[in-house]
Design a protein that fits this description.
alpha/beta, 2 domains, Rossmann fold
């Protein structure tokens, strides 16, 4: 385990310790979902955004709220509805009759962690209000560009059911999410534990185990995790293969390669290493590519899934050092 410190003073060991503390704190109120929570934290460390998909009632919103409490950062929730306007997200200038001047009223996007709940319930014009914020970490209001606080992360949720009257996210916007995570039903044992906690409620108050400064230091440390050139070649081979696969209509772009590189570094740090291995890459391939790949119609008609295609590609490419 490396004890090398970054210029900001955090070692890989300290990053791993902080990450474990965050996940343990959220685990006090969230039953299971450890992998989902870890992937959300990986997304935060890589300065990206997460799209959560799952049926109603499986604690997607509660999970985001608990996560924000554990990292000690400001949290805002935006409930997307068909009548929502872009100004409801980014804010607007309003007239103050006392001063006779306009003053800026910032929208909920000016927060460290923003939950975009049921993001596909609003029309594209409103959805696009998140684009600049997600990509540039800034928003422009009536010609004035304002930076967003650091760290900044969008956690968006959408339900795979009741799609009538919704507005599917454009591919350009979906691609801006680091991961698309599927939140499944709890296991049988986990559901019993949920019922037990409901029947015998316990007073559990989450406390912040880090703060925004520590999160930024963790981000800087994970960015400097070492990666061998042959691992970069492995990442390239995986993504390029998706562009030439006979079952894939649209494969991963260079952005997918960059995301796989950045998140593999974080995964290595969370494992207590200051170097990336092929297993770090493999563990994240599905989350990085599952929303960036579009299958050909004939492959979909045959019942082929994106995950099955990704698994086949991984088998076809030689693992370095295997």
């Amino acid at each position: 385990m490396s004890r090398r410190r970054s210029r900001d003073g955090l070692s890989i060991k300290e990053v791993r310790t902080h990450a474990t503390s965050i996940l343990d704190e959220v685990g006090k109120v969230i039953v299971g979902k450890r992998n989902v929570l870890q992937n959300i934290l990986i997304g935060l460390m890589a300065k990206g955004h997460i799209l959560l998909e799952g049926v109603p009632g499986i604690a997607k919103t509660y999970m985001a709220n608990a996560f924000a409490q554990a990292i000690g950062c400001e949290f805002k929730r935006i409930q997307f509805t068909p009548d929502m306007l872009p100004a409801d997200i980014v804010g607007t200038n309003i007239y103050d009759p006392n001063t006779g001047e306009f003053r800026l009223r910032k929208g909920p996007v000016f927060s460290n962690l923003v939950l975009a709940d049921e993001v596909n319930r609003s029309p594209p014009k409103t959805q696009s209000a998140l684009l600049e914020a997600m990509q540039e970490k800034q928003v422009t209001i009536e010609g004035t560009t304002l930076p967003l606080p650091a760290p900044f992360m969008v956690l968006a949720t959408q339900n795979p059911i009741e799609l009538e009257g919704t507005y599917p996210l454009p591919e350009a916007q979906v691609d801006r999410f680091l991961f698309k995570l599927h939140v499944d039903y709890p296991s049988d044992a986990e559901e019993v534990e949920i019922l037990r906690r409901k029947h015998q409620p316990e007073e559990v108050e989450l406390a912040p185990v880090v703060d925004s400064t520590t999160i930024i230091q963790m981000q800087e440390t994970t960015k400097r995790v070492f990666i061998e050139p042959y691992i970069m070649t492995y990442i390239r081979d995986i993504v390029v293969r998706t562009r030439n696969d006979p079952q894939i209509l649209i494969g991963g772009s260079p952005r997918a390669s960059i995301v796989l590189l950045d998140t593999s570094k974080v995964h290595a740090a969370f494992s207590g290493r200051d170097f990336v291995t092929p297993d770090d890459v493999k563990s994240l391939v599905h989350h990085v590519l599952n929303h960036r790949i579009i299958l050909k119609p004939e492959a979909e008609l045959e019942g082929t899934s994106v995950h099955a295609v990704i698994d086949r590609i991984l088998r076809q490419i030689s693992t370095p050092g295997a």
